[in-house]
From TrEMBL:
Signal peptide extent: none
Gene Ontology CC: I band; sarcoplasmic reticulum; striated muscle dense body
Annotated Pfam families: Phosphodiest (PF01663)
Protein name: Alkaline phosphatase family protein
């Protein structure tokens, strides 16, 4: 969750999230990137690069060097996306929700 402090999980103020952790999987040592925005963090996880290096610095932004604004829902031009995914994990997750999400955002350039 964007901007959610990890220490909140140990303060017994988020019972629903605690149940998800108890029954599922969580990342104990994740260090989120800045800015605390959804898509920059998702793309940082996919590429292993901070937003300053992967090119996605906000959910929507203007680049004076390009003739258009970036919005993750409308921009499918690979020129916006710097860096390559950490690995080609498509063969592991094919037809799973994770794979379908990554594919929907066009983070997998080759199959």
């Amino acid at each position: 969750m964007d901007g959610f402090r990890a220490s909140y999980l140990t303060q017994n103020i988020t019972p629903a999230l605690q149940r998800i952790i108890d029954c599922g999987v969580h990342s104990k040592y994740l260090i989120p990137s800045f800015p605390s925005k959804t898509f920059p963090n998702h793309y940082a996880i996919a590429t292993g690069l901070y937003p300053a290096w992967n090119g996605i610095v906000d959910n929507g932004f203007y680049d004076p060097n390009l003739p258009e604004k970036y919005f993750k829902k409308t921009t499918h031009d690979p020129g916006w996306y710097l860096g390559e995914p950490v690995s080609d994990f498509a063969w592991i997750f094919r037809n799973t929700k994770i794979y379908l999400s990554v594919k929907a955002f066009k983070l997998i350039f080759e199959e």
